[in-house]
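User: Assemble these into one structure.

Assistant: Restating your components, then the assembled model:
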Amino acid sequence: MLQTIRRYGLMLVVRPVARLLFGLDVIGKEKLPTQGPAIIAANHNSHVDTIVMLCLFPSKLLAKVRPVAAADHFDKGGFGSWFSRNIIGIIPIKRGAASRTEDVLAGAKEALTRGEILVVFPEGSRGEPEEMTRFKTGVARLAEFCPEAPVIPVYLQGAGRSLPKDAKLLVPFNTTAVVGDPLMWTGSHHGFIDKLRARIEALKAQAPPLKWS
Amino acid sequence: MEIVLEWFGWEIATTPLVLGFIGVLALLILGTIAALILPAMQPGKWSDLGPRMRSWWVMVILVGGALLLGWQVTAVLFAFISFLALKEYLTLAPTRKEDRLIVLLAYLSVFLNYGLIFADGLFDDSYQIYLVFTPVYVFLIAAAAMAWIGRTDGYLATVGIVHWGTVVCVYNIGYIAYLMRVPDAQAPAGGAGLVFFLIFITQLNDVAQYCWGKAFGKTKITPKVSPNKTWEGAIGGWITAAAVFYFLAPYFTPLEPMQAAIMGLIVPMAGFFGDITMSAVKRDIGVKDTSHLIPGHGGVLDRLDSLTFAAPVYFHLLAYFAIERF
């Protein structure tokens, strides 16, 4: 029941509105995975990024697509939590001071085991609009846990202008998503995220120039 | 206006607009057949034609449907088109972090600009206000607001960029919708006929330029801005569009023959300049297409480029020559 609401809500409401406000141009759409388990890793500038990522997938796959999102931000209880968990379909993840014995990635790992497609933002936070910060190693640990899952790099551009961190007003601008070739687990955490970061940086060249200063 | 055709002894009464739509439908069907046959004959060469024709069908159905449903639906459709065009433009044109609010104001101008078309009929001065609202008042408000926000580096360039966008994407395109408010008695096929004729002639000019250029094109006309355009194509397209304009004008417009000849020459030329102007903008920004919204065509602005110049020129000349209302 909830899955049906989520699928049709995303397809009939969220996607048309998002297309109108953010254009949603995709370059390399054929490189997106058509089945799980898989991990999509993108740079992160705005809450809109999550919506853009969800709208990239055909409606049949939506049930499997799960954005990994910060629990301290999206899982604070009340309607927000319900909406994030059931409509956006997030897997909440604890940031910052997590205890040593607790595996913060447990929820994400279970999802991979179920054959789902995770959407992760390895920067861990939105940061300055349209600038990429350091990558955290969580995505590498997920790739290590599930080596058969390809990690697909995606470069997102534009949403940081529409809704930057701390902005109150949403301003429509077109966004572009550039999908790259999949990466497989390399055997080293830092080697893996360096490679992933370089891939995403390289995808930027295919996006239209961003003149925003 | 009613046209009576004889067909195998039957007399069929119809209107120019219905015949116009049948003509466009015939062209679409021909194009679709070509899109089915050509890729099979020369694999790889015509891969773009399929999506291009599918997009043509969607565009023709949207615009044709709006024209049949009346001025309100047409105004809403073109308000959406203006918004999409302006969003494409402001996404690519250089803006500053402090300009987010100004960009939002520019989108608001879409509502107000098209609101004035809805207000026409409620009060007589609506048209007068339309004429000055976007070019003068949106400009004044945006310039003042940007000065108020207080960032001075890049101020002048950004004021100019925002103004260019609102005039081209909102004000100029708005004229198409405003034509629908011409009273039916003042044009042989009503306001819808006038809009149909404008869009038909401009798109015909684009297509004819392309065909003449493919067949005879040698001498580049604007090597730096639009290297695929040739003198042969431009002049061939111009003459074709002017001739079609002249011969069809009596069915769609209230123009005298001399007036039709003048407009037939000027409107396609305005379309040509709209086309190369948008090419210059895209080259300056460094993109080929303004977005990927329309498969096979690019963005809304890629499709509208010639109309952004042809629409106001067509409107003003019609108003000057023949339309009582304006």
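Chain A has a mean pLDDT of 89.
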